[in-house]
Amino acid sequence: MSERWTVIRSGTPTRISASVLVVVGIAMFGVPFAFRTDIVQQLTTLCTLLIMAMMWNVLAGYGGLVSVGQQAFIGFGAYATIFLTQRDVPAYLAIVLAAVASGILAIALAPLLLRLRGGQFAVGTWVVAEALALLVALDEELGGGTGVSLRGLNAITPDWRRAYTYWLTLAFTLLLLTLVFLLLRRRSGAAIRAIRDDEEAAASLGVRVKPLKFMLFVLAGFGCGAAGALTLANTLFIQPQSIFGVQWSAYMLFMVLVGGIGTYEGPILGAILFFLLQDWFAQYGAWYLIGLGVVAIAFALFLPRGLWSLADDRLPFRLLPVGYALRPAR
Amino acid sequence: MTYANAVLQGVFLGGLYALFACGLSLIFGVMRIINLAHGDLAVLGAFLVWSLTTHLGAGPFVALIPALPVMLIVGYLLHRTVLARSLRGGPLTPLLTTFGLAIVVQNALLQAYSPDVRSLGGAAGGIATGSWRLTDQISLSYLGVLILATAVLVLGGLHLLLRRTAFGREMRATAQDPDTAALVGVPASSVYAKATAIAVATATLAGVFLAVRSTFDASSGPTQLIFAFEAVVIGGLGSLWGTLWGGMVLGVAQTIGATIDPQYSILAGHLVFLIVLASPRGRSLFAFRREATA
Amino acid sequence: MTLLRATDLGARHGLLNAVRGVSFDVAEGEILALIGANGAGKTTLLRTLAGAHPLSTGTIVYADEDLAGVAAHDRVRRGIALVPEGRKLFPEMTVEENLLVAGHRARPGRWNLDTILEAFPALRPLRGRLASRLSGGQQQATAIARALMTNPRLLLIDEVSLGLSPKAVEEVYANLAALHDDDATVVLVEQDLNRALSTAGRVICLLEGRIVLDAPTAGLTRDEVVTAYFGFNAARQP
């Protein structure tokens, strides 16, 4: 019984699949040269959805923090971009700065909100989003309640504008995918898994829960701010009610629950699925949203690990080296 | 003088928020979950009463007589079908399912009743519009007094139920320690289902008062959930009478904000909530609850 | 007559097999002591009988009924009551409320609030006190009284004297003796071997989740018990 084991991060199949994914990610930069602009715009939408799903998963799946108020950061990112472009900051630079500003907003809000647990955190973040929406609506410079357009991109021809927006969105997507990947790979990954499984036990084992949650909250604030700013760059017009709307949280919840909460791959799968569903069924309005709600409840109750768990349990190897495996030592 | 009036109106508005909040507080107190569909269930109840008044020609308060038992059953079944299962799934699952439920209820109402804004004020007759004039600038509406009186009665009734009855003892025992409650013969799931039924019925009452007092539509629920939550937190989590004070503080904040500028009304409420959250009291509040639930 | 028959019980506690292949009978009216070192599986075993801990293997037949699938609160209605480890009173309820909540759905029987307060006179002045403000002995008395309020046929008591002063232990055992006049069946977990042997008619000793001794206390030498308890004869070790 004294077999020796070593801990490995990846086998050959995992290394191959991970390399393929990296190549695909880089190849995606070539899309604007090969496809029509409406496809480029669609892919931009998909990437922003993917960012949102990933960020919501970072909070709920890794930190155990269910937020119904991430639209606070989505809206803040979008309006920070408007604010900066009104002060003659180039639009694409403004988007990057707005994402950073959203991260700073998260740092400012963290002491207040991370004190809350469970449902209190969920509704507490929501109140912040509502308060921000009301504040923005009061500011006539930001268009008030009627909405505002993003200027400063007019100088660029529409095709190039869409391509630039797409590239920036893709860059943000890959950056955040990498950040989350590193988060799971480093020592923090094991701590995150421990918190996810049992926060009290993790704390009693010496996992420093608070700094980790802080880090996750700030990362999610940054990512959601970027997603909001990029949504603005993609649609060029926003209104406080819609960009600060709670429907974003509903979409994020759906994508993450259906894809697989607490997994790296799940939100990616969920975002793609949601994107397709949106395309096919959004015309049905309220019925479509009823369907989304029912599916989300069904997944929460009957398949809490999401669709990815079905694939993950059957695959003989992991697509990405984010876990640990035991192998007999030679 | 207008500020004195604002404070007075805010206190009465607080009665409405307390009525919204007590169901949320009850479910949180007994099951340790926040029901994110609470506001939408209140609006569902308001629509049920609206349907009854338009089809039967009855006033909204008469229509409550059949509507409340129906909503009690809705709450009971809601627990038996969705919540009971979600409680077994870990701490996050009830949040995810009740949020999903909120989306379903809201959009089902949208589909069934269109996005039109409605009011039960007309159907309620004189009570919705009448008032006592105290001075030139201060008047007390019949409805405001009725709502506050109802809130006090409901909270007092819940208090007596929890303190004085066998079922109340079972609820408190289950709230404090569900596993041990089972060991003395208390079936937690049945207690939870009844608590949910009561919460949904009080939400219906609040929804109808909202509909009589002003207007409502299919998407009114989330705002009411937020107000209810703010009242619960300002008043102190887990304290029934606290929700009355919490509701009043929120109501006064909103009416004073509205006196300065109507746009500031709701914002002022949010700010007071965030200040309470940031205050040392807010901090100790949550620290205390953590110990109590551990 | 056999009141309860446990066959091949197994139960996990986390990753640990806390109870493994345990079989025993409890006869109506007897007092059975469960002994064993810390971590031997006594608490887990009692909790499986009460339905508070899931079984991984085995069956429990109680009063000719298989208890598989019978929830803890339904077992209480069938007459099984557990005084849990750590007493687990409802801290924000008074002593009287703790008793009443257990009595609300009780089986018919001799115990009600009045008879309980007669049998536990020390509790009478404490009726209105919050359970969180009781001393250890008062808590244990309340916990036993609370279990009795359900009028059990089978009373399971975990850690009867743990953390109690000698005087409190005397009181609790005096209560137990009064109880046994009533022909109740009792399974108790007791760390104090002398207490266990003098109170119980039969003793079961667990070692690492298995039964290593199951015998009537009459005629049992202390040496035999100690050997079973430690898994070796401690007295003969150099």
Describe this structure in words.
- The complex is a heterotrimer of chains A (330), B (294) and C (238).
- Chain A has 330 residues and is mainly alpha-helical.
- Chain A is built from 15 helices and 4 strands.
- Chain A has a single domain (5-328), classed as ABC transporter involved in vitamin B12 uptake, BtuC.
- In chain A, 45% of the residues are buried.
- By secondary structure, chain B is an all-alpha fold.
- In chain B, 81% of the residues lie in helices and 2% in strands.
- Chain B starts with a helix and ends with a helix.
- Chain C has one domain: Rossmann fold, CATH 3.40.50.
- Chain C is built from 8 helices and 10 strands.
- Chain C has helices at 42-50, 72-78, 95-103, 113-119, 136-148, 166-180, 193-199, 222-230, and strands at 2-13, 16-27, 31-36, 57-62, 65-66, 80-83, 154-157, 185-189, 202-207, 210-216.
- In chain C, the strands form 2 sheets. In chain C, strands 6-7-8-3-9-10 form a 6-stranded mixed β-sheet, with helices on both faces.
- In chain C, helix 6 links the parallel strand 7 and strand 8 (185-189).
- The longest helix of chain C is centred in the C-terminal third of the chain and has 15 residues, at 166-180.
- The mean pLDDT of chain C is 86.
- Chains in contact: A-B, B-C.
- At the A-B interface, helix 6, helix 12 and helix 14 of A face helix 3, helix 4, helix 11, helix 13 and helix 14 of B.
How much strand of chain A? under 5%
Please give the oligomerization state of what you see.
heterotrimer
User: How many domains, in number, for the residues of chain A?
Assistant: 1
Determine the fraction of residues in helical runs of chain A and give it as a percent range.
Answer: over 70%
Number of domains of chain B: 1
CATH topology of chain A: ABC transporter involved in vitamin B12 uptake, BtuC
Q: Please report the first level of CATH classification, the CATH class of chain A.
A: Mainly Alpha
**In terms of per-residue confidence, which ranges of chain A show pLDDT below 50 for 5 or more consecutive residues?**
none
Spatial gap, N to C terminus of chain A: 15 Å
Q: Average pLDDT of chain B, to the nearest integer? A: 89
Helix run count of chain A: 15
The most extensive interface, with participating residues per chain, is:
A-B, 43 and 50 residues
> How are the strands of the biggest sheet of chain B laid out side by side?
1-2
Element pattern of chain B in H and E: HHHHHHEEHHHHHHHH
- Report the CATH architecture of chain A: Orthogonal Bundle
CATH architecture grouping of chain B: Orthogonal Bundle
Give helix % range of chain B.
over 70%
Question: What kind of sheet is the major sheet of chain B?
Answer: 2 strands, antiparallel
Number of strands of chain A: 4
Please state the CA-atom Rg of chain A, rounded to the nearest Å. 20 Å
Secondary structural class of chain B: mainly alpha
